[in-house]
Specification:
The protein is of the alpha+beta class. Helix content is 53%, strand content 7%. It has 2 domains: 80 residues, Glutaredoxin; 127 residues, Glutathione S-transferase Yfyf (Class Pi), Chain A, domain 2. It has 10 helices and 4 strands. The longest helix is centred in the middle third of the chain and has 26 residues. The structure holds glutathione (GSH). The site of glutathione (GSH) has 12 residues, from helix 3.
Length: 217
């Protein structure tokens, strides 16, 4: 069976989990600790997840390449990403979301069951180098939340009801996986149309974020 090495919170890893669900591909889950450098380095030579390992032992990374490879019939319309304008439009939107979403989520993700003390310290020290101390990010959370509404409006204007499409595509996996992390905030409410959109994607992918949470060794 195909094995997926992944971090529970990681949006790129969630992309692959969503694709497996949508494509009804059977897979073996290998939630991996963030400080575990050996596992990814042994598999691909790079400390980066997601990684899939196929039955023949070969392994690959890069979420979009993985999805393209497992989606034999192009059910997710991966070819849409060959349209440079559309690809840029989605990637630009994800880049705009990335700042506030990661500033809001990282200080909370580290306190979920996914992390132990060692992986928490590894993650925090790595991420704080770029973003500054987590406790200061938490203090600024209202500022980060206030950056989200115009981005949600932009996204909403493109939903038909999926991302510029009547059917679910790879673009919805890219968008939904990157927004999913915000559910870590119990007091945060997505605008209803965006919440409904995320639920539509979740249903199509039979996606259960918490399914693997308690499997992290
Ligand atoms: N372009 C890659 C990006 C994957 C990526 O950035 N993964 C992050 C986790 S979200 C990672 O493995 N980081 C390892 C580290 O920073 O130590 C993909 O689409 O798969």
């Amino acid at each position: 069976m195909i094995k997926l090495y992944h971090y529970i919170h990681c949006p790129f890893c969630i992309r692959v989990r969503m694709a497996f669900g949508f494509l009804e591909t059977k897979w073996e889950s290998r939630p991996t600790h963030y400080h575990d450098e050996k596992t990814p380095l042994d598999l691909t030579g790079v400390k980066m997840l997601p990684i899939v390992q196929f039955e023949d032992g070969s392994a690959m990374n890069e979420s979009l390449d993985i999805i393209k490879k497992i989606d034999h019939k192009d059910a997710l319309k991966n070819k849409l990403l060959e349209n440079p304008e559309l690809k840029k439009e989605v990637e630009d939107l994800l880049d705009e979301f990335a700042g506030p979403v990661h500033n809001l989520c990282m200080p909370y993700w580290v306190w979920t069951k996914e992390f132990n003390q060692e992986s928490r310290e590894y993650f925090q020290s790595k991420k704080e180098k770029k973003r500054g101390p987590f406790h200061l990010l938490v203090q600024r959370r209202n500022e980060f939340f206030s950056e989200l509404p115009p981005l949600f409006e932009k996204l909403q204007s493109r939903l038909e009801p999926f991302y510029r499409d009547k059917e679910m595509t790879i673009l919805d996996i890219m968008v939904a996986s990157h927004l999913w992390g915000l559910y870590v905030h119990p007091d945060f409410q997505f605008p209803i149309k965006i919440h409904e959109y995320l639920k539509r994607v979740q249903e199509q992918c039979q996606f259960d974020y918490h399914e693997d949470l308690w499997k992290t060794p």
